[in-house]
Design a protein that fits this description.
The chain is an alpha/beta fold. It contains six helices and 13 strands. The N terminus is likely disordered.
């Protein structure tokens, strides 16, 4: 079975497990080899290529890596399109999404049968929910970073919250902190570890024993770092699989 049509142009689509993925080819002057990654959220296969590589070579590269792409697709959970009635792990607690015509703003309701997050019905409630979650994540992570960096005695230059796919956090050599907004789905202790980890990089830009000693010193005494890291491994795929735009690829 062919997965793309022969053409002098770069391949535009590929079918994997009965799902069509757009193929995005990014030619870069500094690229020395072909690389690719699978973006299940955007239903895209993204290829980076040297500027002068021929389209035929890119097509062959894509077909040669089909088994890897299908393995990657199979290892990821199905996308969870969030809608009325969906459950999300807000701060580690399973919370039901309820679109309520009587609600004037997003409200957390601690009902007898569990937590509910009530959304106003007007406009696009699910997109409003995503903006709300990003705002909550930014507020939470900023407060933790300010407190922990104060304990370290080193200030950070900036803090950004993005929808990163490969890292939960990062720290640049210039003191810029970056975090995934999807950390709002984790328990408080997990976010505490991630922030402590990145703040520790303000002093140690490596993962040396000195760095890990600093990271541990910035965490609460009863916080098990290995447990926190395991939580990210165990639940991260689910957090990344949640889609808040109401679309199904």
């Amino acid at each position: 079975m062919r997965i793309f049509s022969k053409s002098l142009r770069d391949p535009e689509t590929i079918t994997l497990a009965d799902r069509r993925f757009d193929v995005s080819v990014n030619r870069m002057k500094r690229a020395r080899r072909l690389t690719l990654r699978l973006d299940t959220h955007g239903s895209k296969v993204r290829i980076s290529a040297p500027e002068t590589v021929e389209a035929e070579l890119i097509a062959s590269f894509l077909e040669r890596n089909r088994p890897w792409l299908e393995q990657q697709l199979a290892s990821r959970p199905d996308l969870d399109v969030i809608r009325d009635g969906s459950m999300i792990p807000l701060r580690g607690q399973e919370t039901q999404i309820v679109i309520d015509a009587s609600a004037n703003q997003i409200e957390l309701d601690d009902a007898r049968d569990g937590l509910r997050l009530r959304l106003p019905k007007r406009g696009e409630p699910i997109l409003r929910l995503q903006r709300f979650l990003i705002t909550e994540a930014r507020r939470d992570l900023t407060a933790r970073a300010e407190r922990i960096s104060g304990e370290l005695g080193r200030s950070f230059r900036s803090l950004h919250v993005r929808d990163t796919k490969t890292r939960w956090g990062s720290c640049s050599s210039r003191g810029g902190l970056n975090f995934s907004w999807r950390l709002i789905f984790a328990e408080d202790r997990v976010r505490e570890y991630v922030v402590a980890h990145e703040v520790a990089h303000l002093r140690h830009m490596d993962h040396s024993p000195a760095f890990w000693a600093q990271c541990k010193a910035l965490c609460p005494p009863d916080l098990d770092i290995d447990w926190a890291k395991q939580q990210l491994r165990d639940h991260g795929k689910r957090w990344h699989a949640m889609v808040f735009d109401g679309s199904v690829p």
